[in-house]
Amino acid sequence: MTFQTLTKHLHKDSNTLAHIIQTYAKSKQLSKGKLLHAQLITSGYPSCTYLTNHLLSMYGRCGQLGYAHKLFDEMPQRILVSWTAMISGFSQNMEFLKAITTFCKMWVCGESPNEFAFSSVIQACSSLKSVQIGKQIHCLALKVGFSYELFVGSNLADMYSKCGLMVEACMVFEEMPSKDEVSWNSMIDGYAKNGYNEEALVAFNKMLIEDVRIDQHLLCSALCACGAYKAFNFGRCLHSFVVKLGFNLHVSVGNALTDMYCKLGDMDSGSRFLEIDSRDTNIVSYTSLIDGYVETEQIEKALTIFVELKRLGIEPNEFTFSSLIKACANHAALEQGSQLHALVLKYNLDQDPFVSSIVVDMYGKCGLLDDSIQAFEKISKASEYTWNSLVGVFAHHGLGKEAIDVFNRMVVQNLKPNAVTFYKLSIHSISRSSLSSRNGSLPLNSITHFLTLTLPPSALLSIDYLEGSQVNQTKSLISAVSFTT
Length: 485
Prior knowledge:
The chain is mainly alpha-helical and 485 residues long.
């Protein structure tokens, strides 16, 4: 049956046509969907908002936002479903700013959002880490009565946790009248990724008591927390629980198990688990193993695993190289580091922010300052990590003035130094070079502007300033900066 015959027979049955469009959307059969849309136009099928909304959803799901936007603009009448389809389409296709803009336009046009529109726009805020806009949307959700809805609440908790606001995330979560595995995973994963690993494991225990359905995402988050918190006994029990539920066959859970044992320093279990599940081994598991060997100072074993990767035909990624080059930097292993750098260039990973920063750091720690600078200059758009590495390299070589010059260039480009940068500057640039405020030391106003750290490094900075006889600067720094603990 041709599409023309189909549309002729279904002339009065828009529900059936909508079902067909929905099927094409779910199966991502874009070409068939476009053909059906074309037949509807050429056959003179009467335009209706109901079918247009399904077409909007199909184009959005298939990533054809240009078609969706054109169709949306041509609609004589838009209803809530139309707006929601566009917001969802933008959010699903990583056009997050457009999702937020469309949501605002919808509100200005007098259309009150539903839970699906709220969920999509909150996901967009979460991806952009636009917590201020997210808070305004949260207020709006409270106003129209959707903040406690399951999907909206879960996305709000996820947004706050991804923006590092765990207090707000916890408040949203506790106020939700009902919670599912997605809600719990937002909290457990949020706790783990923000360094609250003990809280993540406590939340996991509470979830078990409430008899929430377990999925692989929850288990991965809990295993990650176990590794970071060094909860060996809990991790072993969780491993048994994973096997009992049959989730050890999931690739993502297997990766998480390998990573957990490696972070716990139990390299025998980590490597043994990898051997048992070798049928599904991938670069994630091998990188966890390499990282584990690096952290336990077993560099030769890490390099052996890397050679094994090449034999198996598994392509290394940016995390693999970052871990190995970091090991070479810490051990001043120039020969191996240079060879890895050559492979980084081969795999076109030299512009990756983490890899490039570690390459700069590696050459600096191996004593090759010129090579370090050259590696930095070849980066088309240096990230804050790479700039921080360059500051550290100059500081490591006792070139205090040059380190502070790089720091000031970072400030001009609105890039944020990290805790390690200030530590290196304070130890090497100020203490060793004895730079004072008269000849260009680290400007206090720059420190107070950028130093929004969660760790309390004031003690380190105080000691290092005192070593350089900078007592007054120490007192000013401590009084000027509010550290959160």
